[in-house]
Amino acid sequence: MVTDTIEDTRVFFSIKHISWSEYGFHTPILLQDANGPCPLIALVNTLLLKYEFDIQQQQESVKLAGINDLRKHLLRLETKIYLDDLLSRLGDLIVNIAETSPDCEGDAAKLLDLLPQLHTGLSVNPNLITGKFPKDDLSTVLFTSLFELNFEHGWVLDEDVTVIRELEFFDKIQDFLLTNEEEVQTKEWLDANKTQVTNAGLEKLSDSLDFNNFAIYFRNNHFNTLFKSGSGDLFLLMTDSSLKSSKNIIWQSLTTVSGKDDIFYTGDFFPILDEDLQEIENQRGEVDDSDMILVKQLQEEEDQRMAEEMHKKYQNIHTKATKKLEAQDKKSELISKSKKQQTKDSDKKKKSSCIIT
């Protein structure tokens, strides 16, 4: 008897288990294929690595406590995690944060709807003066306000360009150039810095991060995990899926604008020698094209369903919490009235006692 095999076309992310730092942390991370910017990968990887470090330093955040459940889940899965599974678990994290932090409730509801978009991209508006992003952007709310992560870029003005200094934000600068085509100086600076990083930006980036700290790093419409080591050096986590089988190539230094002098490092931050770099070229040539195509098949209807379910879940929890608070307030009000009545009755008895005497 012949049976048809139904191919599983769901979107998934490959998992790589890395050992890193002088403490020998063992952490599962998500790898990136040829599927666009994917801030989702940067968010998850940064949370996982930061969690390991915070636990060692006994600095566990209440907001990040739930990340250990995701870490254990990835360790059990070993090789890959499906997008719907990942979004569901991140949704649970956001709901838990909303329950413990009332100030985040409004943001949490918006972000639950935003989650599916994290697979295909995320709109950002870098400030070319400060190296930051607008505080009210959903990207900033998600990374910084909700998950307490640094969100940085290195595309910072390094010379006197009046328009950029006055407008600051990239979106405003773009809008200005649409109606002011004669503005040559601004265009020349943008063209000269298409890599979206400058020496001034690297300096500001280093100054803004504490030692042994993590950030989500934005550059050229890509998001990555950045780490500032105890020595002050900056490293980017290598998440290219072509390096999945490589146990040695974990980090890449971030020291130059051009990237010419940036080198690869092992998990415990030892530089990889030139003779070992052939491993990178060999592995890059072994990427399975079919996997790339599979990852690109993002199912928008499935994502929308997931978003609606997570939003509904949040609304249910929020409604229950509200009813609970209302019930507690009503109970407190009844107790207060009862105490007042008891006080009145006691006063009456005292007055009556005085009259009899």
TrEMBL record:
Residues 13-269 form the MINDY deubiquitinase domain. One of its GO terms (molecular function) is hydrolase activity. Residues 323-348 have a biased composition (Basic and acidic residues). The keyword Hydrolase applies. This is Ubiquitin carboxyl-terminal hydrolase MIY1. InterPro entries: MINDY (IPR007518), MINDY_domain (IPR033979). Residues 317-357 are annotated as: Disordered. Signal peptide: none annotated. Keywords: Hydrolase.
